[in-house]
TrEMBL record:
Keywords: Cell membrane, Ion channel, Ion transport, Membrane, Metal-binding, Sodium, Transmembrane, Transmembrane helix, Transport
Regulation: Na(+) is not transported, but it plays an essential structural role and its presence is essential for fluoride channel function.
Subcellular location field: Cell membrane
Positions of transmembrane segments: 29-50, 62-85, 97-118
Main location: membrane
Catalytic activities: fluoride(in) = fluoride(out)
Family recorded in the similarity comment: Belongs to the fluoride channel Fluc/FEX (TC 1.A.43) family.
PANTHER family assigned: FLUORIDE EXPORT PROTEIN 1-RELATED
Protein known as: Fluoride-specific ion channel FluC
Signal peptide: none
UniProt function note: Fluoride-specific ion channel. Important for reducing fluoride concentration in the cell, thus reducing its toxicity.
Pfam family, one: CRCB
Organism: Alicyclobacillus dauci
């Protein structure tokens, strides 16, 4: 059953990811769709892990389906690395380093924000996964 939950969630996440890519595309050579998708995924996963640990205990298969399936397929580290590599290859070193910096720092920041939102909802200020 866990495999089915991840597969269904993965299908949903992949379709959402493709839609966002088509909708947002790139901006000034940066793949803004990947950047914003990864930020949204970090926020969502931080929130999900905290809320399901503190307030809304989810069945493990549901948590897998949403976290690993939907959010895992929605975000993508591999696309991020290819985007950065293409910028380096094209000589856009400053853009590549900015994109990498924004992705890593932004991802950590949005994960933290997700934890804080869920913590505020539950009244528990301890960050939990």
């Amino acid at each position: 059953m866990p495999y089915i939950a991840v597969a269904i969630g993965g299908f949903i996440g992949a379709i959402l990811r493709y839609g966002v890519s088509e909708w947002l595309g790139t901006w000034n050579g940066l793949n803004i769709a990947t950047l914003l998708t990864n930020f949204a995924g970090c926020l969502a996963l931080g929130w999900l892990n905290t809320i399901s640990a503190n307030r809304l205990p989810l069945h493990p298969n549901v948590r897998l389906g949403i976290g690993t399936g939907v959010i895992g397929a929605f975000t993508t580290f591999s696309t991020f690395t290819i985007d950065a590599w293409k910028l380096f290859e094209n000589g856009a070193f400053e853009q590549a380093l900015t994109y990498i910096w924004l992705s890593v720092i932004g991802g950590l920041l949005f994960t933290y924000v997700g934890y804080r939102i869920a913590s505020a909802m539950t009244g528990d200020t301890r960050l939990k996964i």
